[in-house]
Structures are given as C-alpha cells and as structure tokens.
Specification:
Elements: H1 2-14, H2 24-44, E1 48-55, E2 59-69, E3 74-75, E4 82-83, H3 88-101, H4 123-126, H5 131-135, H6 143-151, H7 154-157, H8 161-166, H9 185-199, H10 203-212, E5 236-239, E6 242-245, H11 249-253, H12 258-261, E7 264-265, H13 267-280, H14 283-286, E8 289-292, E9 299-301, E10 306-310, E11 313-321, E12 326-332, E13 337-343, H15 348-362, H16 376-406, H17 415-438, H18 451-479
Antiparallel strand pairs: 1-2, 1-13, 2-3, 4-7, 5-6, 8-9, 9-10, 10-11, 11-12, 12-13
C-alpha cells in the first residue's frame, strides 16, 4: 500500500506546473538568488548550467545559465541533461530504503545475506558489514584502496558490477564496520548489486522501470546517448589549465559504477523527485546518521545525504564531481525547501561554494562568494605544465653536459656531490615509476591520471632517470680514469 501511495504522489507531483511567486518577500528573495547565481557563474567562468528551487509542494524557480554546448552556443535550460555524478547515490539509497519498506531488504542484515560471495581481504571482519554500513559509508575501508582495487583490471571490471565488487576481496579493512565514516563509492556499487539480487532485475533497468518512467522523469537515465528529445550538455574539464571538452562520464567509467555516480538528469527532474521524496518521509528520517564522517562537521545518513549545520539549521545535502560536470542538491527541513544545481564543468569545489552560498541566502544570511576561489583541476593543470617545462629545460641542460663530457671539457671536481645527486634522483625516479605503473587512482584519463598530470609525471620520471643514469656514468668514468 505504501508503495502505491508513494508512486501516485510522485506521479502527481511530476505533472505540477512551476509555481508563480506568491508574495513580495519570496519574490525579492528569489530575485536575489537569481542575481547571486548569475554573478557566481560569471566569477567562476562556468560554461553553463541550470538550477531549480523548490518548496514542499512544487518548483518555484528554475533557470538555465550560459551554454550547454560552447561550440554550437546551445543555451542551457532547466530541462538540459547533465551528469549528476555522486548525487546518484541518493537515488540508489532511496531505492534500497523503499525495498526495506517492502521487507525485501533488511538494513541490519549482513551484505552476505544477499551476496554470499561478498568480502574484503579480511573475510571474518567483512562478514560483519551490513546494508546500513554501506548506506552510511561505514563499511570500514579506505576509499582510495577500494576504488583502486577495481581499476587494477579494467578489462574485466569496467562493465560488470559483480566483477568490480569481487575485486574488493583484495582490499584490507582499516576500521571495524560502523566505527567511522569514510567516503565509499564502492559501497554504493555493492548496494546496486543488492538491488539486483532482491529484484532479479538489472540495476539500471530497475531504476528506469520502477522509478524514472513511472515518475515522469523523462530526462533521467544511465544512457544519455539514448535521449533524442532533449539536450544533453557537453562536459568540460581542463588540460594544462585551459578549458576543454572532455569525454563524458558514461564513456570514461562504463557502467560498473552506475549506482554510485552514473546517472544523468535535469534540475526539474531532480527537483520533482526531491519534492516527492521529502513529502513521503519525515525530516528526521533523513537525518538519522549512524557515524560521523571523515569530512569536517558532516554526518553521513542512511538516505545517502550528508547532514550539515548552517546557522543553527540542519541541512541535507549531496554533491557530485564528474570528469566534466559538478552538482549539488540540498534540502533545508526547517524551511521545507531546497534546490538543485547542475554545472557543466569539473569544478566541484566552486560548485560546492555556490551551493553553500544558496543555502545561506535561503536562510536569510549573506551568501559567500566563489570569487577568488581555487579551481583545483585548473591549478593542477598549471602545476603540471610547469613541471613539463622544467623537465624539458633539465633535459636540454643534460644534453649540454653530455656534449661537454664527450669533448673532454668537463670533469668531476666533487665526486661525492655527484653520488648524493644520484642517490636523490633515485629516491625521486623510482617512486615515480612505481606510482605510474602500479597505482591507478581512477579509471579515467591516462592510466588513471588526468592527461596533463600523467604527462608531467612521465616527463619528470624520464628526466630524473636520465639524470640518474648520467650521474652513474660519470662516476664510473672518473673511477676508471
């Protein structure tokens, strides 16, 4: 019965029109909000995006800003589809909680109840991991270790949820399950497998047929290439600090990570979904956190949202960082209102700053500005370019020294300094090569690294190795003369 009531409520909600401004105070606040977001997009130099503000009953404002495609100058709109990245987690969490309502999933049951083969490296410890632990990021594994295990064998794991989850058997647990929150992408992928086990449906198929289609979420999908009647935004990132179009999330990551970050949607679809979700549950339901997180002043909740306190008000939020997009979804229970913000650029920190500014504005406070903020990916690109230039200069300098050595115009005056240099270069080059060959931090880019970072690390590794070889040669040369 609960399922039928919930679905009916959601279907009605998705057909509601966008509300008119109902009073002068609301109108003034929304005008401030429009001006603020437009100003922040300009300051951040975002290519474009969209946002929607909603209350407990309906969307009260939705706008597109800038362009969804810089090449064609296609303007962004509220229905424009973006990669929502980790906001997908709240969709997956909602599906699990609904299955729990239907008594198909028990939140405190071990994961092995549904996936008998599931385990981390410590089988006895991992047998204690429950569904609730997965929801609250408290399974007891480090994010980098867990993600990295999947990336070690992309051929087998890229498009298989099960293979990717089985790769976790090599991951060592660093905490007791439930003891501490550590952001966990792989936890939500395992939740996707639990959905498949209890529904006997493919995860994407289940979400499409049981959630998106019945709720009229026509612009929400895991296969954006299948959408024909709406604009799918291009995704933009950086190469050596310069903005460029990047490969979309679904191409970079395949579908083995769909439950944690693979969905595409529009601000209007997500706003309608959020309205229905928060209408169907009490605010306290979404604030039931089990453990504090590894993020400052944040509580992970069973609903997939993070709970923060802003000016003495509890706020439920979820942000997402894609390869070429960023997103932010928030709900303020005390105001019974929230918003969705989608951006067509990989700048999660700035998007988060703007999102928190919107929260402050909705609470009647002075919003923070993204002006002067740090774009981490752009900064990384500039640093990478600097490393490449320095490496090239060092190679040129090395060539000059080799020529002088061959012409017998160069001799070693302090052999011990060359020896120290050889030792230092070894300490630099060996870890660099091990990092490049053994560690895959992501599935995207070049062997798991952003292309500019990969180029800079390779150039530095080659340069230090050449200098180390040169130092060894001249030491040997001096010793034999």
């Amino acid at each position: 019965m609960l399922k039928k009531i919930f679905l009916c409520a959601l279907i009605v909600l998705t057909t509601l029109p966008i509300a008119n401004i109902v009073n002068a105070d609301t109108g003034s606040q929304l005008q401030q909000l429009e001006a603020y977001i437009q100003e922040q997009f300009t300051e951040a130099q975002f290519p474009g995006g969209a946002y929607a503000v909603f209350n407990q009953e309906e969307i009260i404002l939705s706008q597109g800003i800038g362009y969804s495609n810089l090449a064609t100058k296609q303007e962004a709109a509220p229905h424009t589809v973006y990669s929502i990245a980790s906001i997908t987690k709240v969709l997956t969490a909602a599906a699990i909680l609904k299955l729990a309502d239907e008594q198909l999933v028990e939140l405190d049951a071990p994961v092995t109840t549904y996936l008998p083969w599931f385990q981390y490296k410590d089988g006895e410890q991992s047998a204690k991991v429950t569904v609730r632990h997965l929801l609250t990021h408290s399974a007891g594994v480090n994010r980098l270790s867990a993600d990295g295990a999947i990336y070690q064998d992309i051929r087998n794991n890229r498009n298989s949820l099960e293979n990717a989850a089985k790769a976790l058997s090599s991951v060592k647990m660093n905490h007791e399950p439930g003891a501490v929150g550590q952001y966990c992408n792989t936890c939500y992928n395992v939740l996707g497998l639990i959905i498949e086990a209890v529904t006997e449906q493919n995860y994407e198929t289940f979400m499409e047929e049981q959630w998106f289609k019945p709720l009229g979420m026509n612009n929400t999908t895991f296969a954006p290439y299948s959408l024909t009647n709406t604009e799918v935004a291009k995704e933009y990132g950086y190469l050596f600090g310069l903005q460029r179009e990047v490969k979309p999330y679904w191409k970079e990551f395949g579908n083995s990570q769909a439950p944690e970050g693979g969905a595409y949607s529009s601000v209007t679809d997500l706003a309608h979904w959020a309205i229905a979700l928060f209408q169907s549950r009490s605010p306290q339901y979404f604030q039931s956190g089990v453990v504090a997180s590894d993020l400052t002043d944040v509580i992970y909740t069973e609903s997939g949202f993070e709970r923060i306190i802003v000016h003495d008000n509890a706020v439920l939020r979820k942000s997402g960082d894609g390869m070429g997009s960023s997103s932010y979804l928030a709900y303020i229970p005390s105001l019974q209102s929230g918003f969705v913000l989608l951006v067509g650029e990989a700048d999660g920190e700035t998007t988060k700053t703007i999102g928190e500014g919107i929260i402050q504005l909705l609470l009647g406070e002075t919003p923070q500005s993204a002006k002067g903020g740090l774009n981490v990916m752009q900064l990384l690109g500039f640093i990478s370019l600097t490393i490449v230039i320095i490496s090239l200069l060092l190679v040129v300098w090395l060539c000059v020294r080799v020529i002088r050595l061959r012409q017998k115009q160069f001799s070693v005056k302090r052999r011990w300094t060359v020896g120290l240099r050889l030792l230092l270069l070894g300490f630099i080059s060996i870890p660099l090569w091990l990092l490049l060959l053994k560690v895959r931090p992501t599935e995207a880019g070049f062997y798991g690294y952003p292309y500019d970072l990969a180029i800079s690390l390779i150039s530095l590794a080659i340069t230090t190795s050449l200098w180390a070889f040169y130092s060894a040669v001249i030491l040997f040369r001096e010793r034999t003369h």
